[in-house]
């Protein structure tokens, strides 16, 4: 009779232990949905704009360099001289590329500013989104080879990529596959 009591208790204990990972996953899902919900609501639009910024970035930078060179050729010290700068942009045909870039970057800046108000993320997906915000603010770290980066810049670059990978996305918010953390 005593053996039956221990058997039932042992089975109940094993069943309870088996249920722990399921309960933990459910708690993580609830936390994900509530704690970082407002932060994560910004992610789809930000990721879409970020991918667009990466697409137009080379043409934007090239247009900016041509305009800056043309401004210097016209004797202006910098682009602050709007009269000369505007005329050069129109003459060089760069206004459209620059305006498109400024629109995208302005929207990204607004989302990043809003996201900062939520404070530190509390979930893996929230942390990955904040890593993508950090990527946006530090894209220069991906324009040079690793061997040309200072150690602290390389550390930041690797940290951004690692946090995103843990949540199963790349630095542009595209799915990589199964997240390491969920």
Key terms:
182 residues, mainly alpha, 7 helices
Largest sheet: none
Percentage of residues in DSSP E strands = under 5%
Rg, rounded, reads 25 Å
- Helix/sheet category: mainly alpha
For the record, give the distance between the C-alpha atoms at the N and C termini, rounded to a whole number.
44 Å
Uncertain segments are 4-10
**Total helical elements:** 7
Q: Give the number of DSSP strands.
A: 0
Topology order in helix (H) and strand (E) letters: HHHHHHH
Question: Shape, please?
Answer: globular
Helical content (DSSP H or I, runs of 4+): over 70%
Mean pLDDT: 78
What do these coordinates show?
The longest helix has 33 residues, at 2-34. The chain has helices at residues 2-34, 37-41, 43-73, 82-92, 95-116, 124-137, 151-166. It is globular. It has 182 residues and is mostly helical. Helix 3 (43-73) crosses helix 5 and helix 6 (124-137) runs antiparallel to helix 7. Helix content is 73%, strand content 0%. It is built from 7 helices and no strands.
């Amino acid at each position: 009779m005593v053996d039956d009591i221990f058997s039932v208790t042992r089975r109940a204990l094993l069943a309870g232990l088996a249920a722990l990972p399921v309960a933990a996953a459910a708690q993580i899902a609830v936390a994900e949905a509530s704690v970082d919900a407002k932060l994560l609501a910004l992610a789809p639009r930000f990721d879409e704009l970020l991918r667009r910024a990466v697409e137009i970035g080379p043409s934007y930078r090239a247009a900016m360099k041509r305009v800056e060179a043309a401004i210097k050729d016209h004797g202006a010290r910098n682009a602050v001289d709007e009269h000369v700068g505007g005329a050069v942009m129109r003459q060089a045909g760069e206004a459209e590329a620059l305006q498109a870039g400024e629109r995208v970057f302005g929207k990204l800046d607004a989302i990043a500013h809003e996201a900062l108000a939520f404070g530190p993320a509390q979930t893996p997906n929230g942390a990955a989104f904040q890593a993508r915000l950090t990527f946006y603010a530090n894209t220069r770290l991906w324009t040079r080879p690793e061997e040309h980066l200072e150690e602290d810049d390389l550390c930041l670059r690797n940290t951004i990529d690692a946090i995103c990978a843990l949540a199963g996305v790349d630095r542009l918010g595209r799915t990589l596959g199964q997240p390491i953390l969920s």
